[in-house]
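@channel sequence for tomorrow's demo:
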Amino acid sequence: MVERMNQPRIGTRKLKYLLSLQQLFIGRDRLFSLLASHQMLVSRQRAYHKTTNSHHHFTCHPNLIKAGLVPEKPEQLWVADITYLPTATGNTYLSLVTDAFSRKIVGYHVDDNMKTDSVKLAYAKALKQRKSNNILVHHSDRGVQYCSSEYQQLHRHYQTKCSMTDGYDCYQNALAERINGILKNEYLLIKPKDLKEARKMVEQSVTIYNQRRPHTALKYKTPDEVHQAF
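C-alpha cells (generated this afternoon):
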C-alpha cells in the first residue's frame, strides 16, 4: 500500500479513511485482518528522555489553558515542547510549535543542543509565518528555555501572551506531547546518522504530517486543511 509506505505507522482507522479517498473501500475488520496477516499492524512504542529543567530563577507564567482557554480558530493558541531525537553520532533535539486548533506544526527546529538560542528558532519561524492579528497565546512547560529572558523577548516583540504549566504534570501540555509522539512513533522510525540527516528527516516528516495525516479530532481532516480554512 502506497499510503502505508508514506506513513508506515499510521493507525488502521485513519488508513481506512485515506483508502476511501482513493475509492478503495474495505471493511474495518477485513483491513485489520489483512494488515495482521502481513505483519503490518502498528504496535505501541514508549520511550522517555528528560528534556525539561524547571529548576531555575526565571519568572514563570500562569496556566491559561487550565484557567479555561479553548481556541476557536487557528493562531489563537500555540503549544511548544522539546523532544529528544537520537542519531548514530550523538544526541539531537527537536523543538516544536503546534497550533492547538488545527494541530498544524507551525514551527520547528532541530539542533545538537537544547540551548535557548536553538529552541527559540522554532518559535521565531512560526511567528514569521503568522497570518492573523488574533490574540495569540504560547503555552509550554516551565523549562528554562521558555522562561529565559531571550524567549520572553519574543513574546514582547510580537505582543503574544505566555502560558505555562503550573507543575510537573505532563498532561498540562498534553497536546504538545502528543504531537511529539506522533512524529517520533509514526515517521521518525530510522535513526539518522547525524544532525544533517536528522534535519532532513524532520522536514520530510513535518510535511507529510501537516499535509497528509488525518486527525480524528479534526473529523479526519489534515492539519493543513483545517488551518487554511480560516
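heads up for whoever presents: The two ends are 33 Å apart (CA to CA).
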